[in-house]
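Minutes, methods subgroup
Present: GH (chair), OT, SY

1. OT presented the first of two proteins processed in the latest run. Sequence and C-alpha cells recorded below as shown on screen.
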Amino acid sequence: MAIGVFSILFYTASILGFGGLILLYIIKNEKVKNILFYFLSILGIIVSFEGFISAPTNDIVGKIILAIVGILPILAIIIKNKMKLDKIAYILVTITVIVSILKTFSII
C-alpha cells in the first residue's frame, strides 16, 4: 500500500517538476515564466523538505544536501527580485528541482 502511494507521489512530483522546467525555458511570456518560477520554487522547497524529514537519521550527508538544496529556491527568489538576474535564478531552481526529486526518491 505504502509503495503504491510513494510511487504515485514520485510520478506526480517528477512530471510536475520536469515538465515545469521544460516550460520554464521554452515559454517566452514573462508573466507565465514568473508563475512557473514561483511554482517550481515552492515545489523544490516542498520536495526537499519531504526528503529531509523522510531520510533516515543516520544519513547525515543526505540530510545536509537536501537542506542546502531546500535553501536554493529562496536564494533564487532573492536573486530574481533584488538583482534582476533571471537566468541565474532559473538555474538555481532547476538544480533544486532535479536534485531534490532525485535525492528524495533515492536515485542519487
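2. SY then presented the second protein from the same run.
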Amino acid sequence: MITSPETFYSRGNKFNLVAGAITQEVKINGKDVSKYIAPSGCSVGWYDVSKNSGRENQNANGTMILNVINNKYRLDITTRYLSSSEFIDFFSEIRKAPKMTVEFYNPFTGEMELIDVYRGDRQANPYGPYRDEYLYNGTTIALIEL
C-alpha cells in the first residue's frame, strides 16, 4: 500500500501522489473516496427532466413548450494517479452493483446531498509499472441520479 503524499519519478516525469488535496467530500455507499479524487476532480451537474417538451411540441403560436417534471444530478468524478491497490479500492463499491448511493457536497444548495445513482462506463488507463504495482492515469466515471 502506498502512503501519500509521496514523490517519485517515472519516464522522466515527476509525480506527487497526494491524498487529501481535495475540496469536496464524496462517499459511495458510505465509503469515503475523497482521497482518490484529483483536485477539482468532481463536477456536479444539475439537469431538468422534461416530458412532451421541445420544438416538435409547440403551441398554436409556434412557441416551444417546456414541461419540466423533475431535476436530477450527475457527478463526474476524476481520480488522481492511482496505484493498483488504490485503483481497486476506489472501484470496490462501484463494482458491486450498477446502482449505489452517493453523498456529496451540493454546490447549488450549499449542503451535503444523498442520492441514488447508477454508474456510467468504467475505464482503466494504465500508465506504467510502479514498484511492485502498476500506476494508473486519472480516470473519470459518471454517477448519474436515478
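Chair's summary of item 2: The two ends are 34 Å apart (CA to CA).
Next meeting: continue with the remaining queue.
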